[in-house]
């Protein structure tokens, strides 16, 4: 089975990389891009039967730094 | 003072830090990230700068979960001293031994230059040989030194006088110009600038040396 973890900077934590991408899009003529947030996607290959609780533990212990990042988990 | 300097794959300031400690008079031993015990009688564990584990995932995240960091936590819980410089500061925040996190620099660039720091707290074992408000020049060399804490934590750090150093001219976007913070018991210090790289005349300045002499004199008192 697979799981996909999305890690994003929390709302309220300034994302300088997202801001740089927003500026670059504006420079390319894409008007109206009001915000860009850049995160990461982590794909996990897991043993069948791995629970969401286990993936949550992985996120809490390593995959995300919950001081500044939030995460969502997609199973399957 | 007995000090241990942790070496991770990708550490590159480990030797500089060991030399700065030795020149101040410390007995220094290097420990490897896979070690599962610290040498006996260690007073200070120093976590050096560099790019541990290639900065993969997040700076310091993999290092913070290495076997020796379990020992580091135990050492700190017992009241031991720990110093993290640059990547070492990132490791200490990732272990939870210090609050906050280090984000990508606001200007998105790696910055390597001498900068001015204001010594905010002198009531720590690391800063007692400085004077409060003293401005010192030491180098920074980082891509992810943009310190973040939320407003509540910032108020706590300020209220408890736990900001050890601040930037005179904030180079990286850090909250409240913070360059270094100490733990509640004031025995753990993390900072992005490199005092070990400014501790001998041949470095171009000696403003970082007082950190190591402070440690020696405080340990002698203890």
Largest sheet of chain B: 9 strands, mixed
Query: Which two chains have the most extensive interface, and how many residues on each?
Result: A-B, 13 and 20 residues
CATH domain class name of chain A: Alpha Beta
Helix/strand structural class of chain A: alpha+beta
Helix tally of chain A? 2
Describe the structure.
- The complex is a heterodimer of chains A (76) and B (222).
- By secondary structure, chain A is of the alpha+beta class.
- Chain A has one domain (2-75): Mth169, Chain: A (2-Layer Sandwich), CATH 3.30.1280.10.
- Chain A has helices at residues 16-27, 52-63; strands at residues 2-9, 40-45, 69-75.
- By secondary structure, chain B is an alpha/beta fold.
- Chain B has one domain (2-221): Class I glutamine amidotransferase (GATase) domain (Rossmann fold).
- Chain B is 23% helix and 26% strand.
- In chain B, strand 3 (44-47), helix 2 and strand 4 (81-85) form a beta-alpha-beta unit.
- The radius of gyration of chain B is 16 Å and the shape is globular.
- The interface between A and B is medium-sized, with 13 and 20 residues.
């Amino acid at each position: 089975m697979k799981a996909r973890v999305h890690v994003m900077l929390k709302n309220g934590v300034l994302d300088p990389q997202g801001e740089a991408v927003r500026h670059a899009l504006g420079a390319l003529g894409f008007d109206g891009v009001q915000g860009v947030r850049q995160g990461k996607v982590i794909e996990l290959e897991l043993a069948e039967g791995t629970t969401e609780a286990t993936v949550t533990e992985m996120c809490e212990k390593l995959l995300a730094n919950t001081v500044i990042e939030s995460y969502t988990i997609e199973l399957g | 003072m007995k000090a241990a300097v942790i070496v991770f794959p990708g550490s590159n300031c480990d030797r500089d830090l060991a030399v700065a400690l030795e020149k101040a008079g410390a007995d220094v031993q290097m420990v490897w990230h896979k070690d599962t015990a610290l040498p006996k009688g260690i007073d200070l564990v120093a976590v050096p700068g560099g790019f541990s584990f290639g900065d993969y995932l997040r700076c310091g995240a993999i290092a913070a979960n290495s076997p020796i960091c379990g020992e580091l936590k135990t050492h700190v819980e017992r009241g031991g001293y720990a110093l993290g410089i640059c990547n070492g500061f990132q490791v200490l925040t990732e272990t939870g031994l210090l609050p906050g996190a280090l984000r990508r620099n606001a200007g998105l660039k790696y910055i390597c230059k001498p900068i001015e720091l204001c010594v905010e707290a002198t009531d720590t074992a690391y800063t007692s040989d400085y004077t409060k408000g003293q401005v010192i020049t030491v180098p920074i060399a980082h891509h992810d030194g943009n310190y973040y804490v939320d407003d509540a934590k910032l108020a706590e750090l300020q209220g408890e006088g736990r900001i050890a150093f601040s930037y005179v001219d904030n180079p990286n976007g850090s909250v409240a110009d913070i360059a270094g913070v100490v733990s509640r018991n004031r025995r753990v210090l993390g900072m992005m600038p490199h005092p070990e790289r400014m501790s001998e005349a041949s470095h171009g300045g000696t403003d970082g040396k007082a950190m190591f002499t402070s440690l020696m004199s405080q340990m002698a008192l203890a």
